[in-house]
UniProtKB/TrEMBL annotation:
<dbReference type="InterPro" id="IPR038555">
    <property type="entry name" value="Zincin_1_sf"/>
</dbReference>
<dbReference type="Pfam" id="PF06262">
    <property type="entry name" value="Zincin_1"/>
</dbReference>
<protein>
    <recommendedName>
        <fullName>Zn-dependent protease with MMP-like domain</fullName>
    </recommendedName>
</protein>
<dbReference type="InterPro" id="IPR010428">
    <property type="entry name" value="Zincin_1"/>
</dbReference>
């Protein structure tokens, strides 16, 4: 019997946080250890200041963001001034999930999380795209 969808609700911020934690916990070593101090935060959308900084008008354009000093640039003599953070934006991720319709929500959340962890490791978008392309081959 197909689902009726009448008893379904959109995944909450807490649901997203659980899916993100599961994706993080599934990372192989040593990636999980290297990314271990990163704080993962889930919000509905990026705030106006972030959107302005990213030169974006549409909050649905941004599914995730890394904020911090990547591990390649840190001073080896001490910790970063503030913890590195990865933001996952629930509503844009849900929008992408609905538009795509060909992958599970947990896969998209894991993809965005891993992309942002790539920034934590010092990779830019072009390099992350290259690595992702190599994984698809």
């Amino acid at each position: 019997m197909p689902p009726t969808w009448t008893d379904q609700t959109a995944p909450s911020l807490d649901d997203f946080a659980r899916l993100a934690r599961g994706a993080f916990d599934a990372l192989p070593e040593p990636f999980r250890s290297l990314a271990g101090e990163v704080v993962i935060r889930v919000d509905d959308f990026a705030d106006d200041e972030t959107l302005t900084m990213m030169e974006m008008e549409d909050p649905f354009e941004l599914t995730g963001l890394y904020h911090g000093v990547d591990i390649g640039l840190r001073d080896s003599l001490g910790p970063a001034a503030e913890p590195s953070r990865i933001f996952l934006y629930r509503r844009p991720i849900l929008d992408e999930w609905c538009e795509r319709g060909d992958v599970g929500l947990s896969e998209i959340i894991a993809h965005v999380l891993i992309h942002e962890i790539g920034h934590h490791f010092g990779l830019d978008d072009d390099r992350i795209d290259e690595v992702e392309g190599a994984d698809d081959a």
